[in-house]
Amino acid sequence: MPNSARYLSSSEAAQRLGVSVKALRLYEQRGLIAPSRSLAGWRAYSPDDMSRATEIVTLRNLGLSLAQVGQALGGDAQALGPALAGHQRALEMQIGQLAGIIERVRGLQAELAAGRVPDSAELAQLLARKSTGGVAFDLPWPWGGERFELGNIGAINFITGPLASGKTRLARQIAQTLPHGRFVGLERLSNQAATAQLAEDAGLRLRVETSLGWLAEEGAEPSAALTELVALLESAENEILVIDMVEHGLDQASQEALIAHLRRRHAEALPLFLMTRSTAILDLAAVAPGENLIFCPANHSPPMLVPPYPGAPGYEAVGSCLASPEVRARSADVVAVRTGT
Known about the structure:
Elements: H1 10-17, H2 21-29, E1 36-37, E2 43-44, H3 47-61, H4 66-73, H5 81-113, H6 120-125, E3 135-138, E4 147-150, E5 156-160, H7 167-177, E6 181-184, H8 188-191, H9 193-196, H10 202-217, H11 224-235, E7 240-243, H12 252-263, E8 272-275, E9 291-295, E10 304-305, H13 315-321, H14 325-330
Parallel strand pairs: 5-8, 5-9, 6-7, 7-8
Antiparallel strand pairs: 1-2, 3-4, 9-10
């Protein structure tokens, strides 16, 4: 391998591209990229490899599946059509949001000229291009009526905690308090109400099939649980879903593909609240800006918002509640029961 100084290792290439090493392996498995090897057998990414990988990452960020990426890189211009249309919709929505903010600024300027000084809340609204606001309520039993407040609802809001910590009650209360909130429990696996809509709604069926195809390319295993989740997500256009144990019924590869899919949703998608105790869904090292981590302590202390970095209050406790899908599967049927007078 000539001029080895110009070559990057897998970890270096992944860091520079802003993706995981696992993603690079997947691109290679799908024949999208073919890094050379060092004399010791390690993968080595040349400048040409990095250029190719950059194209792949850019296309993925536009929403293309791996199959569509391959078609686009092979010269099939039609593969870009749906992705560009989706990107256009997102940009148009952002333009609309900015136009609304500009109108608010003009209104505040007029009021300022008339002698009225805007308050801090009005000014703060100008800083958020898109906001679904917050949620606040008095905590139900088993808490003592303490106040729970989430000032900024994130794109994804994880809810976790040990068994019998009250996280399901918290999740139900969040869904009840939010305008257009909806709690989705584990009964989804038995009634499959969302899946039943597919036979009657051709548009929904197409969206679900597209998403399932994307997930399969990311390594997800087809299952009734995955289809029901995707159907729920695609049919809930005007609802904020609060989903109980989102990993239930999914293997590790499916969980990893699902959370990646949820993070790639279009900008106009409504927020999600996901209850989980799986490290495949809630990887503390992968929590992104705009995501919230809500922790319910074991002793029924009030739920808390935990900053996702080591040393933050509650961070280690959150880590102790999470386990790999393999470990979680051993206790999948364990139900916490509160006893006493």
